[in-house]
Amino acid sequence: MKTRPKSRKFKLRLDLLEYLTDKDILESALANVHRYKPEPLFSKTGVGYLAPATPADRELEMKQSEALIRRLKQRQRRAQSLIRQKKK
Question: What is the pTM of this model?
């Protein structure tokens, strides 16, 4: 009997989405570009595929994701404190 690999449940933090910047998105894309494999006729078709993540890739993605969430929470706290200061 085969055992299924453990999957982690992720909570989508929509409350932090408004603090996400273009720079954050670019950093994430560049971190995963090594997994993108263009097909042989990429110049004609513009098509490729994303190779499966290795365990090392998954570990790195988790660390990057956790770091991004920390940065977004920090931005959220700063924005909320500015709002509170303006109300005084």
Answer: 0.69
